[in-house]
Amino acid sequence: MDSKNLTSADLPGAAWKKSSRSGNSGGNCIEVAGNLPGLVAVRDSKNPAGPVLVFTPGEWTTFLGDVKTGRLG
Fold first, then answer.
1. Distances (CA, A) of 32 to 11, 35
2. Cβ atoms within 10 Å, residue 43
3. Distances (CA, A) of 40 to 11, 23, 27, 35, 55
4. Rounded to two decimals, what is the model's pTM?
5. Which of 26, 54, 29 is nearest to 39 (CA)?
6. Which ranges in the chain belong to alpha helices (H)?
7. pLDDT digits (tens, 9 = 90+) for 22-69
């Protein structure tokens, strides 16, 4: 799959989930689809038809670990 210029329409089987920490104020939030074989997809919750970022499960796990430890902040 060519990950350039992907949109949600290119991932029809994606089960998108928004963070439980997201409020309903329309702020900055992402949705993640982790149910796709071999990849994790991320999109802007305010623009669900817009572009999608795609990561390998290992890349996503590393990113989450870095966020949790503050290495990216």
1. 12, 9
2. 22
3. 11, 23, 22, 7, 5
4. 0.81
5. 54
6. 57-69
7. 766 666 789 999 999 999 999 999 999 999 999 999 999 999 999 999
The amino acid at 62: T
Q: What number of residues does the chain have?
A: 73
- The number of CA neighbours under 13 Å toward the Cβ of 18 is 13
State how far the Cα of 15 lies from the Cα of 2, in Å rounded to an integer: 20
Sheet strands side by side (includes 39-44): 17-18, 30-36, 39-44, 52-55
Residues whose CB is less than 8 angstroms from the CB of residue 40 and which lie 6 or more positions away in sequence, other chains included: 32, 33, 34, 54, 55, 56, 57, 59, 60
Distance from C-alpha of 73 to C-alpha of 58, rounded to nearest angstrom: 20
Both tokens of 34, joined, read: 């982790």
Beta partners for 33? Answer: 41
Contact 56, 72 (CB under 8 A): no
